[in-house]
């Protein structure tokens, strides 16, 4: 299976003793895992493929090297040929805006592939986790970090309003509008303790290794559950976050009118009664 996951900027592994778990590692440690266009396009390929892989039930996302989960956007690369390049041209501003909008929407969709993925995604962050790291992690389902992590919504420091997901998702991840606006407007660094206090992360671990280990353990626990139930739970939670309670209840009813017909329900109930670990078919 691993041979079908050959990517340039991401390592995709299937760790022994962690059945049905995929470990995705951002693989540009020499540049602190900073992203440029080829990377975010590849990110979408990775998560689209994992989403449809019946041998995968949960995913861990981490960064290679000891320095950073990701330092965010590779500003140097972007300024030399991407949307941030100095556009001293005679192109009509409206026409230039159309092309720029397409570029931003494509970038947004690549990050949204993490959220859109049918499988739960647990992100394990360490070191520098700046800018794009916040976009990525808020698109994930569970966030864990190490004590040495350094977070920042960094975009205002390069003259931008964050446009790849942070400003839309972070207020829904963290309950304090005041805190979200503070960190987004100031681009200040905040650490693991503060991230835990405001609810941005679920737990803090000693170092990168322990954080990834905890993420794999949690992913393995999730992967042991019915994939019908897990995928439905992620779908309904994400839908309900963006809709009213009544809309969420109605969508749950429609979704479960199909999902409740699964054999996984009886398998889980019987296993509970018989005090044995249930096994579930691939989905």
Automatic annotation (TrEMBL):
GO terms for molecular function: delta(3,5)-delta(2,4)-dienoyl-CoA isomerase activity. It is found in: Peroxisome. Signal peptide: none annotated. Its main location: other. The keyword Lipid metabolism applies. Pathway: Lipid metabolism; fatty acid beta-oxidation. Keywords: Acetylation, Fatty acid metabolism, Isomerase, Lipid metabolism, Peroxisome. Gene3D superfamilies: 2-enoyl-CoA Hydratase, Chain A, domain 1 (3.90.226.10), Lyase 2-enoyl-coa Hydratase, Chain A, domain 2 (1.10.12.10). GO terms for biological process: fatty acid beta-oxidation. The keyword Nucleus does not apply. Pfam families: ECH_1. One of its GO terms (cellular component) is peroxisome. Belongs to the enoyl-CoA hydratase/isomerase family. This is Enoyl-CoA hydratase/isomerase family protein.
